[in-house]
Write a structure and sequence with these properties.
The complex is a heterodimer of chains A (119) and B (240).
Chain A: H1 2-17, H2 24-35, H3 42-48, H4 58-68, E1 71-75, E2 88-92, H5 94-118
Antiparallel strand pairs in A: 1-2
Chain B: E1 2-11, E2 16-23, E3 28-32, H1 35-48, E4 52-57, E5 63-71, E6 77-82, H2 90-137, H3 166-175, H4 178-201, H5 205-227, H6 229-239
Parallel strand pairs in B: 1-4
Antiparallel strand pairs in B: 1-2, 2-3, 4-5, 5-6
Classes of the chains: A mainly alpha (119), B alpha+beta (240).
């Protein structure tokens, strides 16, 4: 039993060292959040994506990204007393920015490697 | 039809009741002492002269009983007893019962609306008029008091409908965790309501209806993805 426990811990550490998985939509969301100066609403991201993100799936993706620690969200501040559900503002975390940079670097390396192989 | 009549006759000489059986035209008759003997002779004669009928009178001369004898298609003698003149046969009985039921139904159909009208509607209308008169009799205290309508005139009810997505939110609240509801479904409903009310504000009713359809579809997509059903669909897609 202790051996199996140690093996599991080692595999977890190895997973931590690996680049976290990032889908195309998650990459797109991170890109938009990093490039924009301010925090964004979900609907703004849908409209800005030009059809790559859908209304039905973006919030599920955002929730999963939030659970991964890539982004953070908070309810919009309200100046006047309003009724109804508050919208959430999404911003990228430091970890999310690092992951994005790592992905960009990995993509650049991969592109150059592919170019050399192709050349 | 041959008729055989059985009467009771008092014989003053012997101080005894005789039973007389009379039949035929011209009338022939014979007398016996006992009723069952008279009946026996009459039955034998009636069976031999079909169709026939035995009429039994009581001591007062009234008809007590009829016994009819007939033959069917196979020459079997059939007979039936009528206890009095107005007794009904089975077919007559069925028709009379059926007819009386129909009559009762017709009467009920006529009576029930009348009862409802007189016992329920009329008192309510009278009460309504009375209340209307009382309301109209109150002096107007406020400027817009005349806008208060009586029950008699209040035909249109104010219709309040819930905001879009209320029932769907209640449904997913039952199924998913509060975190998922807060971060996913409430945000979709927030956008839904925002766009819907904006369209209504601009007077674009058809646009609002289209938003309802589109966001219902989006909600369904989010439901599938949040519940993990999309993996099932993708598994089937891969298996194909």
């Amino acid at each position: 039993m202790p051996n199996s426990k140690n093996n599991k811990e080692q595999s977890d550490k190895a997973d931590d060292n690996l680049l976290p998985s990032l889908s195309r939509k998650e990459y797109l969301i991170l890109e938009m959040l990093i490039e924009s100066i301010r925090e964004l609403y979900g609907l703004e991201m849908v409209e800005a994506s030009g059809g790559n993100l859908k209304r039905g799936t973006i919030y599920v993706t955002l929730q999963r990204m939030q659970e991964k620690g890539l982004i953070d969200s908070k309810p919009e501040p309200r100046t006047a007393p309003e009724i109804g559900i508050p919208r959430r503002l999404y911003s990228v975390t430091g970890y999310g920015a690092r992951v994005y940079k790592a992905y960009c670097a990995a993509r650049a390396v991969l592109a150059s490697e592919l170019a050399t192989i192709g050349g | 039809m041959n008729e055989f009549e059985i009467h009771v006759e008092y014989d003053p000489k012997q101080d005894y009741n005789n039973w007389k059986v009379s039949y035929g035209d011209p009338v022939e008759c014979f007398r016996v002492w006992k009723k069952h003997t008279a009946l026996h002779y009459a039955k034998n004669a009636a069976r031999e002269n079909l169709p026939s009928r035995i009429i039994i009178h009581d001591q007062n001369g009234n008809v007590e009983k009829y016994i009819e004898y007939r033959s069917d298609s196979e020459n079997n003698i059939i007979y039936r007893i009528k206890r009095h003149l107005f007794e009904l046969t089975s077919s007559e009985l069925i028709f009379s019962v059926f007819g009386s039921i129909v009559l009762i139904i017709i009467l009920l159909l006529l009576l029930v609306p009348w009862v409802i009208w007189t016992c329920l509607c009329c008192p309510l209308i009278k009460l309504n008029r009375y209340l209307s008169e009382r309301i109209n009799a109150i002096p107007p205290l406020y400027k817009n008091f005349n806008k208060v309508r009586s029950i008699h005139h209040a035909t249109h009810k104010t219709h309040l409908s819930k905001a879009p997505g209320t029932y769907l939110l209640a449904f997913v609240d039952f199924l998913f965790s509060p975190k998922t509801v807060e971060l996913t479904f409430k945000q979709i409903v927030r956008d839904w309501r925002g766009e819907y009310f904006e369209a209504l504000k601009q007077g674009r009713t058809w646009k609002a209806q289209w938003i309802m359809v589109r966001y219902r579809f989006s909600f369904a997509c989010a439901f599938i993805k949040a519940s993990g059903l999309n993996f099932v669909f993708s598994f089937f897609k891969q298996s194909k």
